[in-house]
Design brief:
By secondary structure, this protein is of the alpha+beta class. It is 69% helix and 8% strand.
Length: 305
Protein backbone atom coordinates (compact mmCIF):
# COMPACT_ATOMS: atom_id res chain seq x y z
CA UNK A 1 0.00 0.00 0.00
CA UNK A 2 2.80 2.42 0.90
CA UNK A 3 4.63 1.74 -2.37
CA UNK A 4 1.40 2.36 -4.30
CA UNK A 5 0.92 5.66 -2.44
CA UNK A 6 4.46 6.80 -3.20
CA UNK A 7 4.10 5.94 -6.88
CA UNK A 8 0.76 7.74 -7.14
CA UNK A 9 2.25 10.83 -5.49
CA UNK A 10 5.14 10.79 -7.96
CA UNK A 11 2.69 10.88 -10.87
CA UNK A 12 0.69 13.69 -9.26
CA UNK A 13 3.82 15.76 -8.62
CA UNK A 14 5.14 15.35 -12.15
CA UNK A 15 1.80 16.37 -13.65
CA UNK A 16 1.35 19.38 -11.35
CA UNK A 17 4.73 20.85 -12.26
CA UNK A 18 4.88 19.69 -15.84
CA UNK A 19 6.62 22.81 -17.19
CA UNK A 20 9.32 22.83 -14.52
CA UNK A 21 9.74 19.06 -14.81
CA UNK A 22 10.30 19.48 -18.55
CA UNK A 23 12.89 22.20 -17.85
CA UNK A 24 14.66 19.87 -15.41
CA UNK A 25 14.72 17.06 -17.96
CA UNK A 26 16.14 19.34 -20.68
CA UNK A 27 18.80 20.91 -18.45
CA UNK A 28 19.88 17.54 -17.04
CA UNK A 29 20.01 16.05 -20.55
CA UNK A 30 22.15 18.89 -21.94
CA UNK A 31 24.51 19.04 -18.96
CA UNK A 32 25.06 15.29 -18.84
CA UNK A 33 25.45 15.12 -22.63
CA UNK A 34 28.23 17.70 -22.29
CA UNK A 35 29.63 15.70 -19.36
CA UNK A 36 29.71 12.51 -21.41
CA UNK A 37 31.04 14.39 -24.42
CA UNK A 38 33.92 15.84 -22.40
CA UNK A 39 34.81 12.37 -21.10
CA UNK A 40 34.76 10.99 -24.65
CA UNK A 41 36.83 13.94 -25.85
CA UNK A 42 39.47 13.12 -23.23
CA UNK A 43 39.47 9.50 -24.37
CA UNK A 44 39.80 10.64 -28.00
CA UNK A 45 42.77 12.89 -27.23
CA UNK A 46 44.48 10.12 -25.24
CA UNK A 47 43.84 7.64 -28.06
CA UNK A 48 45.29 10.06 -30.61
CA UNK A 49 48.31 10.70 -28.38
CA UNK A 50 49.02 7.00 -28.03
CA UNK A 51 48.59 6.50 -31.78
CA UNK A 52 50.60 9.47 -33.04
CA UNK A 53 53.31 9.66 -30.39
CA UNK A 54 54.19 6.12 -31.34
CA UNK A 55 54.77 7.28 -34.92
CA UNK A 56 56.62 10.57 -34.43
CA UNK A 57 60.19 10.90 -35.57
CA UNK A 58 63.05 13.19 -34.76
CA UNK A 59 64.62 14.51 -37.94
CA UNK A 60 68.28 15.51 -38.22
CA UNK A 61 68.51 17.68 -41.35
CA UNK A 62 71.91 17.90 -43.01
CA UNK A 63 73.44 20.95 -44.70
CA UNK A 64 73.38 21.16 -48.50
CA UNK A 65 75.11 23.63 -50.82
CA UNK A 66 72.24 26.12 -50.68
CA UNK A 67 72.27 26.09 -46.89
CA UNK A 68 76.01 26.75 -46.88
CA UNK A 69 75.36 30.07 -48.58
CA UNK A 70 72.41 31.25 -46.51
CA UNK A 71 72.21 29.43 -43.18
CA UNK A 72 74.60 30.34 -40.30
CA UNK A 73 74.37 26.76 -39.00
CA UNK A 74 75.94 25.57 -42.24
CA UNK A 75 78.69 28.21 -42.47
CA UNK A 76 81.35 25.49 -42.73
CA UNK A 77 79.81 24.11 -45.91
CA UNK A 78 77.64 21.21 -46.99
CA UNK A 79 77.81 17.97 -45.05
CA UNK A 80 80.63 15.61 -46.03
CA UNK A 81 80.52 11.83 -46.40
CA UNK A 82 82.70 11.42 -43.31
CA UNK A 83 80.37 13.62 -41.27
CA UNK A 84 77.35 11.61 -42.42
CA UNK A 85 79.03 8.34 -41.46
CA UNK A 86 79.99 9.72 -38.06
CA UNK A 87 76.43 10.99 -37.41
CA UNK A 88 74.94 7.62 -38.32
CA UNK A 89 77.49 5.80 -36.16
CA UNK A 90 76.77 8.04 -33.17
CA UNK A 91 73.03 7.57 -33.60
CA UNK A 92 73.47 3.81 -33.61
CA UNK A 93 75.28 3.97 -30.27
CA UNK A 94 72.51 5.91 -28.50
CA UNK A 95 70.31 3.79 -26.25
CA UNK A 96 67.22 5.98 -26.79
CA UNK A 97 67.21 5.32 -30.54
CA UNK A 98 65.04 2.49 -31.83
CA UNK A 99 65.51 2.93 -35.57
CA UNK A 100 67.39 5.25 -37.96
CA UNK A 101 66.31 5.83 -41.56
CA UNK A 102 68.39 7.81 -44.04
CA UNK A 103 66.56 9.98 -46.58
CA UNK A 104 68.57 11.15 -49.60
CA UNK A 105 67.97 14.35 -51.56
CA UNK A 106 66.28 12.40 -54.36
CA UNK A 107 63.98 10.64 -51.89
CA UNK A 108 63.17 13.93 -50.16
CA UNK A 109 62.38 15.51 -53.54
CA UNK A 110 60.11 12.59 -54.46
CA UNK A 111 58.23 12.81 -51.18
CA UNK A 112 57.84 16.55 -51.56
CA UNK A 113 56.41 16.16 -55.07
CA UNK A 114 53.96 13.54 -53.81
CA UNK A 115 52.69 15.78 -51.01
CA UNK A 116 52.95 19.26 -52.53
CA UNK A 117 52.98 18.62 -56.27
CA UNK A 118 50.25 21.22 -56.83
CA UNK A 119 52.19 23.96 -55.07
CA UNK A 120 53.64 26.72 -57.34
CA UNK A 121 56.97 26.29 -55.54
CA UNK A 122 57.22 22.61 -56.53
CA UNK A 123 57.96 23.38 -60.17
CA UNK A 124 60.97 25.54 -59.26
CA UNK A 125 62.64 23.05 -56.91
CA UNK A 126 65.34 20.59 -57.92
CA UNK A 127 66.61 17.54 -56.01
CA UNK A 128 69.93 19.22 -55.13
CA UNK A 129 68.02 21.90 -53.22
CA UNK A 130 66.47 19.33 -50.91
CA UNK A 131 68.08 18.30 -47.63
CA UNK A 132 69.38 14.90 -46.72
CA UNK A 133 68.19 13.78 -43.32
CA UNK A 134 68.15 11.02 -40.77
CA UNK A 135 64.68 10.07 -39.51
CA UNK A 136 65.02 8.75 -35.98
CA UNK A 137 62.37 6.74 -34.16
CA UNK A 138 62.86 6.93 -30.41
CA UNK A 139 62.04 4.24 -27.89
CA UNK A 140 60.48 7.01 -25.78
CA UNK A 141 59.20 10.10 -27.68
CA UNK A 142 59.84 12.19 -24.56
CA UNK A 143 63.61 11.76 -25.03
CA UNK A 144 63.85 14.20 -27.93
CA UNK A 145 66.15 16.53 -26.00
CA UNK A 146 68.85 13.84 -25.88
CA UNK A 147 69.07 13.90 -29.70
CA UNK A 148 68.84 17.69 -29.87
CA UNK A 149 71.68 18.13 -27.35
CA UNK A 150 73.91 15.65 -29.16
CA UNK A 151 73.47 16.98 -32.72
CA UNK A 152 72.22 20.56 -32.65
CA UNK A 153 75.01 22.86 -33.84
CA UNK A 154 77.20 19.99 -35.01
CA UNK A 155 79.21 20.38 -38.23
CA UNK A 156 77.10 19.31 -41.20
CA UNK A 157 73.81 19.50 -39.26
CA UNK A 158 71.41 22.24 -40.33
CA UNK A 159 68.74 21.58 -37.67
CA UNK A 160 67.13 18.98 -35.41
CA UNK A 161 63.35 18.92 -35.50
CA UNK A 162 60.93 17.05 -33.28
CA UNK A 163 57.52 16.20 -34.74
CA UNK A 164 56.19 15.75 -31.21
CA UNK A 165 56.31 19.53 -30.75
CA UNK A 166 53.79 19.97 -33.58
CA UNK A 167 51.53 17.34 -32.07
CA UNK A 168 51.80 18.95 -28.63
CA UNK A 169 50.36 22.17 -30.06
CA UNK A 170 47.47 20.25 -31.62
CA UNK A 171 46.72 18.31 -28.45
CA UNK A 172 47.01 21.50 -26.41
CA UNK A 173 44.29 23.04 -28.57
CA UNK A 174 42.09 19.95 -28.23
CA UNK A 175 42.56 19.91 -24.45
CA UNK A 176 41.67 23.61 -24.31
CA UNK A 177 38.45 22.94 -26.20
CA UNK A 178 37.72 20.06 -23.84
CA UNK A 179 38.15 22.25 -20.76
CA UNK A 180 35.86 24.86 -22.32
CA UNK A 181 33.22 22.15 -22.79
CA UNK A 182 33.67 21.13 -19.15
CA UNK A 183 33.17 24.73 -18.01
CA UNK A 184 29.89 24.92 -19.96
CA UNK A 185 28.93 21.52 -18.52
CA UNK A 186 29.58 22.75 -14.96
CA UNK A 187 27.41 25.80 -15.60
CA UNK A 188 24.63 23.62 -17.00
CA UNK A 189 24.86 21.30 -13.97
CA UNK A 190 24.45 24.28 -11.63
CA UNK A 191 21.41 25.42 -13.62
CA UNK A 192 19.99 21.89 -13.50
CA UNK A 193 20.49 21.66 -9.71
CA UNK A 194 18.82 25.04 -9.18
CA UNK A 195 15.86 23.95 -11.29
CA UNK A 196 15.60 20.67 -9.38
CA UNK A 197 15.68 22.43 -6.01
CA UNK A 198 13.08 24.99 -7.10
CA UNK A 199 10.84 22.31 -8.61
CA UNK A 200 10.97 20.24 -5.43
CA UNK A 201 10.27 23.26 -3.23
CA UNK A 202 7.31 24.35 -5.36
CA UNK A 203 5.95 20.82 -5.25
CA UNK A 204 6.45 20.62 -1.49
CA UNK A 205 4.87 24.03 -0.97
CA UNK A 206 1.80 23.07 -3.01
CA UNK A 207 1.37 19.99 -0.83
CA UNK A 208 2.39 21.51 2.50
CA UNK A 209 -0.97 20.74 4.08
CA UNK A 210 -0.75 17.04 3.24
CA UNK A 211 2.84 16.76 4.44
CA UNK A 212 1.98 18.62 7.64
CA UNK A 213 -0.87 16.22 8.42
CA UNK A 214 1.35 13.23 7.64
CA UNK A 215 3.98 14.56 10.03
CA UNK A 216 1.43 15.15 12.80
CA UNK A 217 0.04 11.63 12.55
CA UNK A 218 3.50 10.17 12.95
CA UNK A 219 4.70 9.51 9.38
CA UNK A 220 8.46 9.13 9.16
CA UNK A 221 10.62 11.73 7.48
CA UNK A 222 11.65 9.31 4.77
CA UNK A 223 8.02 8.40 4.03
CA UNK A 224 7.19 12.11 3.58
CA UNK A 225 10.27 12.83 1.50
CA UNK A 226 10.10 9.74 -0.70
CA UNK A 227 7.57 11.02 -3.30
CA UNK A 228 9.45 14.30 -3.80
CA UNK A 229 12.85 12.60 -4.03
CA UNK A 230 11.48 10.05 -6.48
CA UNK A 231 9.92 12.80 -8.61
CA UNK A 232 13.31 14.50 -8.95
CA UNK A 233 15.04 11.17 -9.56
CA UNK A 234 12.57 10.16 -12.27
CA UNK A 235 12.92 13.52 -14.04
CA UNK A 236 16.70 13.26 -13.79
CA UNK A 237 16.71 9.69 -15.05
CA UNK A 238 14.65 10.71 -18.09
CA UNK A 239 17.15 13.50 -18.74
CA UNK A 240 20.04 11.06 -18.33
CA UNK A 241 18.45 8.65 -20.78
CA UNK A 242 18.06 11.47 -23.30
CA UNK A 243 21.73 12.41 -22.76
CA UNK A 244 22.78 8.80 -23.43
CA UNK A 245 20.71 8.88 -26.60
CA UNK A 246 22.48 12.07 -27.69
CA UNK A 247 25.89 10.44 -27.26
CA UNK A 248 24.94 7.24 -29.09
CA UNK A 249 23.35 9.15 -31.98
CA UNK A 250 26.30 11.55 -32.17
CA UNK A 251 28.81 8.68 -32.29
CA UNK A 252 26.76 6.89 -34.94
CA UNK A 253 26.16 9.82 -37.28
CA UNK A 254 29.39 11.80 -36.81
CA UNK A 255 31.92 8.97 -36.91
CA UNK A 256 30.31 5.91 -38.51
CA UNK A 257 27.59 7.29 -40.78
CA UNK A 258 26.26 10.68 -41.83
CA UNK A 259 29.46 12.72 -41.67
CA UNK A 260 31.38 9.41 -41.65
CA UNK A 261 34.57 10.96 -40.28
CA UNK A 262 36.11 7.52 -39.79
CA UNK A 263 36.14 7.12 -43.59
CA UNK A 264 37.07 10.70 -44.49
CA UNK A 265 39.79 11.15 -41.87
CA UNK A 266 41.78 7.94 -42.05
CA UNK A 267 44.71 9.53 -40.24
CA UNK A 268 42.72 9.84 -37.01
CA UNK A 269 42.28 6.80 -34.81
CA UNK A 270 38.74 7.39 -33.49
CA UNK A 271 37.47 5.94 -30.22
CA UNK A 272 35.30 2.83 -30.52
CA UNK A 273 31.84 1.99 -29.30
CA UNK A 274 33.28 0.47 -26.13
CA UNK A 275 34.40 3.93 -24.99
CA UNK A 276 30.86 5.27 -25.48
CA UNK A 277 29.07 2.32 -23.86
CA UNK A 278 31.25 2.41 -20.74
CA UNK A 279 30.23 6.04 -20.11
CA UNK A 280 26.47 5.41 -20.28
CA UNK A 281 26.10 3.70 -16.84
CA UNK A 282 28.01 6.60 -15.23
CA UNK A 283 25.71 9.15 -16.88
CA UNK A 284 22.58 7.25 -15.81
CA UNK A 285 23.84 6.87 -12.24
CA UNK A 286 24.66 10.58 -12.08
CA UNK A 287 21.25 11.53 -13.51
CA UNK A 288 19.57 9.45 -10.79
CA UNK A 289 21.68 10.35 -7.76
CA UNK A 290 22.23 14.07 -8.43
CA UNK A 291 18.51 15.06 -8.41
CA UNK A 292 17.73 12.69 -5.54
CA UNK A 293 20.41 14.21 -3.31
CA UNK A 294 19.42 17.75 -4.32
CA UNK A 295 15.81 17.01 -3.44
CA UNK A 296 16.80 15.41 -0.12
CA UNK A 297 18.69 18.50 1.08
CA UNK A 298 16.08 20.90 -0.32
CA UNK A 299 13.30 19.18 1.66
CA UNK A 300 14.95 19.09 5.07
CA UNK A 301 13.26 22.22 6.39
CA UNK A 302 9.82 21.01 5.28
CA UNK A 303 9.98 18.17 7.80
CA UNK A 304 9.99 20.66 10.67
CA UNK A 305 6.21 20.85 10.86
Amino acid sequence: MRAQFVLSEIGVGLRRNLTMTFAVIVSVALSLALFGGSLLMSDQVNTMKGYWYDKVNVSVFLCNKSDAESDPNCAKGAVTDDQKKQIQTDLGKMGVVEKVTYESQDAAYKHYKEQFGDSPLASSLTPDQMQESYRIKLKDPQKYQVIATAFDGRDGVQSVQDQKGILDNLFGLLNGMNWAARAVMALMLVVALMLIVNTVRVSAFSRRRETGIMRLVGASGFYIQAPFIMEAAVAGLIGGTVACGFLVVARYFIIDHGLALSEKLNLINFIGWDAVLTKLPLILATSLLMPALAAFFALRKYLKV
